[in-house]
Amino acid sequence: NLLEEKAAKIMGKESAVFVASGTMGNLVSVLSHCQRGSEIILGDKSHIFRSEGGGASALGGISYSTVLNNEDGTLEPDDVRSAIRDYSTRLSRIHSAKTSLVALENTHNSCGGAPLTASYTESIASIAHENGLPLHIDGARIFNASVSLETPVADLVRSADSISFCLPKGLGCPVGSVVCGSKSFIEEAREWRKMVGGGMRQAGFLAAAGIIALDSMVDRLAEDHSNAKQLASGLSNIPDISIDPDKVHTNLVFFDVERSDNAEIASKLEDMGIKGGSPG
């Protein structure tokens, strides 16, 4: 309860609910915002679309309407506006899934950890709200965005109707995420959390680490960002490694190894005790 109260206050929202993972946080958020047979507008490189097992579709009957992500993780406002379906006529209601939600990701995982500014988020929120749609932010690394942009996290999510953020990613916790929003939204999210198996007697034990993280770990993310920049700079000086250090914004470092198989390189690094992955 204390973690939920603290998280809601930090995010500037009315209420919050603790969940087991970031994927569960996004899932219960989408299920709470959307009805079966409706659709969500989101980026084609977004974590919800690429890396969450199609949960909204499998469990909620909700379809995905993807818009191209720019290199910096943004969606073009005109693309979002165009993707919102006209549901004003009988013919459109018969033929089209009803658009029910717009989702952003901040920072954006597959776009190199790029942070989205408050002004950009507000521009997308305005489009959503003008069309009667809520905006959800997958804020798994929202504190990284806050530190990088030197902007209070509440300002980054002020225009959003819901936000989920992760406690392990950067903040050092063993497990858990938190979803924040209005009281009525969180009550529905709490019901969905139970249905997908996220209600835990042990929540207080797990949440204790989250309280410590929010109180003492956020400011240290700047160290992660500095280390990531240093790593990127060093990698850029190694022959046959392709990376632009200026595109390393927060705590994620992606690079290519030319004239070689990246998966093979990742395997060799692992043999040396250096963990990495080959996402391509």
Mind explaining what this structure looks like?
- This protein is α/β, with parallel strands linked by helices and 280 residues long.
- Helix content is 44%, strand content 15%.
- The protein contains 13 helices and 9 strands.
- It has helices spanning 2-11, 22-33, 47-50, 55-60, 77-83, 90-95, 118-130, 142-149, 153-156, 183-195, 203-216, 221-236, 262-271, and strands at 15-19, 38-43, 63-67, 98-105, 135-138, 162-166, 177-181, 241-242, 256-257.
- β4, α7 (118-130) and β5 (135-138) form a beta-alpha-beta unit.
- α1 (2-11) runs parallel beside α11 (203-216) and α2 (22-33) crosses α10 (183-195).
- The longest helix has 16 residues, at 221-236.
- The model has no long low-confidence stretch (mean pLDDT 95).
Which structural category do the helix and sheet elements fall into?
alpha/beta
Q: In one word, what is the shape?
A: globular
- Terminal Cα span: 41 Å
Order of helices and strands: HEHEHHEHHEHEHHEEHHHEEH
Report low-confidence residues grouped into runs of 5 or more: none
Quaternary structure of the protein: single chain
In DSSP terms (H or I, runs of 4 or more residues), the helix count works out at 13
Evaluate the radius of gyration.
Answer: 19 Å
Mean pLDDT: 95
Largest beta-sheet details: 7 strands, mixed
- The strand count comes to 9
Side-by-side strand order of the widest sheet:
1-7-6-5-4-2-3
